[in-house]
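S1.2 Input.
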Amino acid sequence: MSATEHAFPVTASRFMTDVVEASAQQPVLVDFWAPWCAPCRQLMPVLERIAQEYAGRLKLAKVNTDEEPALAQQLGVRSLPTVVLFKDRAVVEHFVGLVPESQIRELLSRHVTSAPESPLERARALKGVGDLAGARAALEQMLATNADDVDAQAALAEVRLLKGDVDGARADLERLQGSNSTHAGTKRLAALVAFNEVVAAYPDAKALKDRVSEDPDNLELRHALAVHQLLAGEHEAAFSTWLDMLRRDRSFKDDLARRSLVLAFELIDSADPIVASTRREMAKALFA
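S1.3 Output.
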């Protein structure tokens, strides 16, 4: 496995130096993994991205337990993935399994020094508290400095969508899909635009829920309610509905349930266990 400045493989012979002693200078996150472990392969890119973002404040050490079984046993590793945080030459935190990225960041925030807030983070924070004007101003300032910043372009389009400028957001999406179709920001924006169209057609969530109760076999109404639930953070309920639709009638509206699940995955932390479990159920429904 290749090494970078902030993420590197470690063996038993170097563990004391590269992890334990090094943690006196800055925290070291140790990922115990194996090539055959599917959750490990899902988690590792998340940890690598975090380590890169925490540049100079955190290192990521990777232990292949197939190659270092004695080291894993010495550290009490029984399940994979297991992630252990060393600080000041001691273990201060650990978790087992595939956990949401937000939970990992919250854990690290207790032990890793904070970095100055980036302009994009500030814009997102402003959007999160409803200050759309402030978020828009921050994003426009970013784009004035770097007009090619795809993250800022996509985030500004999200702000436009929230402010009701659907045509503007859709135009931004078409432009981004033409130049940066695989970028995470573009995919997220595409999902939001698609779901916004559903909300616009069925704006009253409470009335929609009543209609679904009266007509539970109406897949159109159930889909609309699932969109409302997803955007309200009720991910499990939304996914359950789309999976049920997939099992009942995959052909409904040109595979609408499957397409909706794919879009929804763009809005949720990829390390959230519900994403992996829903993907498994989705595969079962598609290939049953």
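S1.4 Remarks. The first helix runs from residue 12 to 21.
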